[in-house]
Amino acid sequence: MTPGIEHFLIVGALLFCIGLAVALSKRNAIGVLMGVELMLNAVNITLLTFSRFSVSERPITGQTFAVFVITVAAAEAAVALALAVSVYRNRETVDVDQMDLLKS
Amino acid sequence: MHGFGPSLAFWVLAILTLVSAGGVMMVRNLLHAVLFLIVTFLGVAGFFVLLSAEFLAMAQIVIYVGAIAVLVLFAVLLTPRAGRDNGETRWAGPAVLLSVALLAVMLFVIKDTHWSTVVESPELTVADLGRALLNRWVLPFEIASVLLTAALIGAIMLVRSPEEEAEDALA
Amino acid sequence: MMLPALITDNWYDIRDLGNLSHEILYQLNRVLPDGLVYVIAALLGFVAAFLIFVLPSQLYVGVLGERKIIGRIQSRYGPNRVGKFGVLQPIADAIKLMQKEALTPKGADKVVMWTAPIIFVAPAVLLFAVIPFGPKMVFADIPAGIIYFMGVSSIPVLAAFMAGWSGNNKYSLFGAMRIVAMTISYEVPLVLALLGAVLLTGSMSLQDMVWWAKHNHIWLVFVQPLAFVIYFICVSAELNRTPADIAEAESEIVAGYLTEYSGMKWGLFYGMDIGYALAASAFAATVFLGGWSFFGIDRWVPPWMIFIGKTHLFYLVFIWTRGTLPRLRSDQLMSFTWKFLLPLALVNLVIVATEKTIWNKATDGDLDAAWVFIFAAVNIVLAAVAVYLWARLVGYRPEDVPTKPRLVKEAGGYIPAPAPEVR
């Protein structure tokens, strides 16, 4: 069966939902970051699918957008991990359930 | 995308990527979860090759596997052993329900829409990507470089120990 | 049947084996079901590139040749007991490693420990898929060949990290973290140096680089000497060769990330160290040293022989630096790359971009070859000046580096008081 646009979009949707489940349900802050990275990868797959398959006068725009998504994901991963390490130094834990100082 | 090769490649990559993503969720050891994440990144790079974006596939490997995965591994090693069991919060059940619901909505939309597609891939080269980044999208390109600088400086400032800060403070 | 003087398209002309393989694959494609010929092509490419070229080179040049040459540099014979002139030494090594017990420590992570050597071997084999051995002998001439090299060479880093962490041993973990920090630091000037080469030739595909060198009658090493030197230093750091082998520093951390490995698992790491060095040499021979072209001789002499010769020549320079230079400290290596190599790579990039713009504007689009020689001369001078000035600025003074040994007293060192005699 030749893979068409729907196959790639379904793979992207599945990956996004798995990433969402990981991001919302993990207790370790780094686990949450892993879920976010999965979601960003799924978005990249979807963007490139549309770039390859859609009728458009400038199909390179999908790839350009994907480049920017990769860049921003790298920057965000660096800052998020620095935050996690810094929180560990101050609070002795990286458990997201215990970071509830703002709770009333 | 006709022929036996691309079809086989698509199914193998799809199974590999989705099983590894499931592994990130299910595995009981955080370091093993990071290894499954790396396999997922490699699978996604394979998808990029299938979608005629070779430069992005290699950039994905260099950036995600070569840098981000290494960062995550370092962060896992710098944080305590107690949190390495990859456990779930008490919102795990509702989270899975929410993602299943979202998946259902997205699958319905994908199946129901009438996509107008082209069959042959547009001949896109790396030169086209470079031209697009420097002509039409030059402003986001420059802002992305400022963002990366800010992230670099921010990450370094966040993990400095107080002695280093005192050493470098302006007297 | 006499071989004609120039390389032709006939299938029996062994000087360009691409003819033979194309003929075989074409005949197979008419017989086999659709798409299966790619698998056969991959197997054929693996056999030809890896089993016929790399494995014997690895054994004879990498194991025996390296040890004999380093031995001669150190005023001793290399291995010469097994077979005449030590010729059977690699085979003896392989037999020894295969019959040795591959231990797994008790608290180690078995699955990760078993998969780390496999992940280490795969990229070294994958790199030979894109390297052109001749005008038609390239397995996959992808249009992003250089960044393919960068991507594939960041995977062994992860394998080394997995190997170090899975051993349940503090020395291994130290080795793993040192090697990861060093490798990701040295990747940055490497990419920038290769980017200069890409700018000048206008394409990322490796076969295009060789055609550029053939068309302009000059090798990229003369036009971009600074990029070549930066490439050499960064690649020898990526490959963990002395002077940058803090990962496997035998006198410091037992054996770094390889502490818990023995038997054929260690043999895979060691062999692929050499295999990966050969891949990096082949890559440098393609991009910088002109690939399979040699100023016109490659129409008579088989181009793959020229290419193999250049690869081994580059590998000889690796062996030479390993035998001669001492090992550097971890912090010396880090400051070297971030403070010295990265600014130099950026300066190189600016110079190349300027020259390419001048080239474009002066010849109105069609780039003729005469300008490249002018650029080569200018670049060599500028490279020497930039290195000298930047070294001065960073703080290197030749007066601080003694070229003759001095006595401890004159150099201002500390002489401990003599121990009291015990009767």
Describe this structure in words.
The complex is a heterotrimer of chains A (104), B (171) and C (423). Chain A has a single domain, classed as Helix Hairpins. Helices cover 75% and strands 0% of the residues of chain A. Chain A has helices at 5-25, 29-53, 60-91. Chain A starts with a helix and ends in a 13-residue tail after the last helix. Chain B has 171 residues and is mainly α. Chain B has 2 domains: 1-87, NADH-ubiquinone/plastoquinone oxidoreductase chain 6, subunit NuoJ (Four Helix Bundle (Hemerythrin (Met), subunit A)); 124-171. Chain B is extended. Chain B starts with a helix and ends with a helix. By secondary structure, chain C is mostly helical. Chain C is globular. In chain C, helix 2 packs across helix 11 (264-287) and helix 7 runs antiparallel to helix 10 (225-238). Chain C has a domain at 107-394. Chains in contact: A-B, B-C. Chains B and C meet through helix 1, helix 2 and helix 3 of B and helix 5, helix 6 and helix 7 of C.
List keywords for this structure.
heterotrimer; B: 171 residues; mainly alpha; Four Helix Bundle (Hemerythrin (Met), subunit A); 7 helices; 75% helix; C: 423 residues
Domain module count of chain B: 2
Measured between the Cα atoms of the first and last residue of chain B, the distance is 65 Å
* Strand tally of chain B: 0
The radius of gyration computed from the alpha-carbon positions of chain C, rounded to a whole number of angstroms, is 24 Å
Q: Strand pairing plus helix content of chain C: what structural class? A: mainly alpha
CATH topology type of the largest domain in chain B: Four Helix Bundle (Hemerythrin (Met), subunit A)
The end-to-end span of chain C amounts to 90 Å
What's the number of helices of chain C? Answer: 14
What integer is the average pLDDT of chain C? Answer: 82
CATH superfamily of the largest domain in chain B: NADH-ubiquinone/plastoquinone oxidoreductase chain 6, subunit NuoJ
The residue ranges of chain B in which pLDDT falls below 50 over 5 or more consecutive positions are none
Rounded average pLDDT of chain B: 88
- Taking pLDDT < 50 over at least 5 consecutive residues as the criterion, the unreliable ranges of chain C are none
The arrangement of helices and strands of chain B along the chain is HHHHHHH
Helicity range of the residues of chain C? 55-70%
Percentage of residues in DSSP E strands of chain C: under 5%
Largest interface: A-B, 76 and 86 residues
Strand content of chain B: under 5%
| Quaternary class | heterotrimer
